[in-house]
Amino acid sequence: MSRVCKMSKNVREVFRLDELKDDIRRNMVALLGNDPRSKRKFSYYNALAYSVRERLVDLWMRTQSDYYDSMAKRVYYLSMEFLPGRFLMNYLTNMGIVDECREIVAELGFSLEELEEEEWDAGLGNGGLGRLASCYLDSMVSQNIPGYGYGILYDYGIFYQSIVNGNQEERCDNWRRHGCPWEITRLDTLYEVKFYGRSETYYDSDGNVRFRWVDTENVMAMPCDILIPGYGCSHVSNMRLWTAQSSREFNLSDFNRGDYIGAMHGKVMSENITKVLYPNDQFLQGMELRLKQQYFLVSATFQDILRRYLKQHTSLAALPEAVAVQLNDTHPAIAIPELMRLLMDVYGMGWDVAWDICTRTFAYTNHTVLPEALETWPVDLLGRLLPRHMQIIYEINRRFLEGVAATFPGDTERLSRMSVIQEEGGQRVRMANLAIVGSHTVNGVAALHSNILQTGLFRDFHEYYPRKIRNVTNGVTPRRWLMQCNPALSRLITQSIGPEWCCNLEKLRELVPLAEDSAFRDAWARAKLENKRLLSRYVLRKVQMGINPNTLFDMQFKRMHEYKRQLLNVMHVISLFNRIKDNPSADITPRTVLFGGKAAPGYYQAKLIIRLINEVARVVNADADVAGRLRVAFLPNYCISQAEKVVPAADLSEQISTAGMEASGTGNMKFALNGALTIGTLDGANVEIMEEVGAENIFIFGLKAHEVAEKRRSGYNPREFYENDAELRRVMDMIGSGFFSPDERGLFSPVYDSLMHHGDYYMLMADYRPYMEAQAAVDALYLDQDQWVRKSILNAANMGKFSSDRSVMEYARGIWHVEPLGK
Ligand code: BZD
């Protein structure tokens, strides 16, 4: 912290702020070829971005030579997804120059906010898993842990969602169409990535059998770096994202044969690898191109890691002492056979030595227990694309099962459950099993989730490796998710308890006594109201709808998925609507219910729920009896920059997944950190949020994870709830009968049927009444603003645990075995 404060004192000097204005003008001309007298916001945003970035390059090079000189152990975070969102404000925040920059930009005739809006989000991920990776990069570099993100620079990130006649439509997210000032392309670094071909046996000079991978089709990987400044900028790291380039000789042979178009086709096909992010979260599509993307990331990354390592070491034997690799879910788990292949086939090691190095290098984070999200690849596909890896996987499995059989003699059922190869329904490679076997540590992302891994999904593995499966509860970076996104509240907090909270979130606890101070409560409420006003303006701009900042802002923003139960929220909205219609003069707490989230393009039911939300909104918002008390809106294209507007303005955060299904959730943390009260089930990190904020400051309802499991076992009958609850019955009948779709009566039948006829897998019917009761408690409390604001303060004050700084330190000490540099 002392370093941070020192930096902010002489920030003008360190970042040459006196020269910033001239630099912006210079970059307008020299880099962008624009007339500085032009008033184009986009040009000025770019000129500002380049001028900010160039101030970090020096610090970045210094950081890298620090790491090199100290021979520090490095952490590589391998992820198919990162969700950094926008960079400009994050750079300025972490450099501590937001206010200074605002003044300079004003002198040029702009507001910082309007230039900020010119930036497209880098949406290189689907949701929580990708955003977590970005929070962890921020926390690693802010705490001087030598960490790097490795991922893919998709040309098209997560699709742009628009809503047309109530339906989701997907448009391609050509986010770099007008360039991206943050990326530093390394045109001179290229690695060759191989695909297809075959594995060939030969004898080395000592007469040992060796393997080589031949007759391959090759694609080149080119890195592009994006700088990641730590808070206070004592260190700057980077994420390295790969793009696919066609290999030269591959083309040349075709060109030489005179087949120009054929050669161009090959070029285009190979460059397709990094074209587009797969938009499915929690669902495996099993496309060959996806597996290609995974191996492309892994192969390029390991060539880069080993090149860097070998600059300072002569032998690979000490790799695990110098390198820790964290696998962000199983998506990059092909890294395990890849490192084995490199160590054995390229560097000549024997199996046992190579395997020991491998298992001491890798750790794997699991983010889901949903069966449809667990990756498996058909053996014939994997064997065709990566023949040598398939051989290695078989050998890993053979040796592994030998060990299991020795520990559990005669237990063939167990062997088939634990095998890396699934036999039933055509042979497939189970990537989770491979990742567990090839890693020294496996972690879940919240206490409940890790417990479910140990006793449920990975139970056999937990019995076999009793210390391997552990927990590291997720966290979010307080820099972006409070300091940057919520200046009003940040200012108040800093005025009250000083600035240290943003690097030591536990400090927020000093706000606890202030919850009893009415002047502080008033200031807190004013900050929330200011944020609600800002959001109201945004909503008006986006969906042409006026919302009243003095109503309760009830928010559910996350990917659309049945297990997340946006439908349960809609059922509550319909119930409120009915109550108002039945009794138009009833005294009810005015609410604005806001939704946002993308559905995977092929996920029919999730898309239908988006439509339902929009149709319910249409009916509710047009009804004169309801006016002023209930409003509903779906905000299109939920993304990081939208989250930064939504999160600070929430009163109520909906975290209502079926217990046992949401691994952790991180939106729950962001909302509570910004003073929203949570209504939620005892699922994922909600359990720990309740422990921290106190059961009296959160609205918990519904079945617990073990009760969901028991009900599934003993037979769950959703109709029972329908028959015994008139209010629920009415809601279901309205959905089923076409009340919200008068022109297409059967439109929502699949929604009705999933609950009434197809078993209600996510148990909405069972949780409806408890949810209604919890919502009634919300309404009652909101009427007592003094109490509400008190609880809002206590929520934020007790969120210290959920800083990603804490999560990253747990990984560092417990899994990576690295310490912050300079300690
Ligand atoms: O990971 C999410 C979980 O659902 C959340 O509970 C958890 O908080 C976060 C971070 O740990 N999982 C995902 O976001 N998963 C994906 O996005 C994904 C993407 C591709 C394929 C499968 C899953």
From TrEMBL:
Q: Name one Pfam family in it.
A: Phosphorylase
Q: What is its EC number?
A: 2.4.1.1
Q: Which molecular function term from Gene Ontology is one that the record holds?
A: glycogen phosphorylase activity
What biological-process terms (Gene Ontology) are attached? glycogen catabolic process
Q: Which GO terms describe its cellular component?
A: cytoplasm
Protein family (similarity comment) = Belongs to the glycogen phosphorylase family.
* NCBIfam families membership: P_ylase (TIGR02093)
Check the record and name the PANTHER family matching this protein.
GLYCOGEN PHOSPHORYLASE (PTHR11468), GLYCOGEN PHOSPHORYLASE, LIVER FORM (PTHR11468:SF3)
- Record-given protein name: Alpha-1,4 glucan phosphorylase
Biological source species: Oleidesulfovibrio alaskensis (strain ATCC BAA-1058 / DSM 17464 / G20) (Desulfovibrio alaskensis)
**Phylogenetic classification of the source organism:** Bacteria, Pseudomonadati, Thermodesulfobacteriota, Desulfovibrionia, Desulfovibrionales
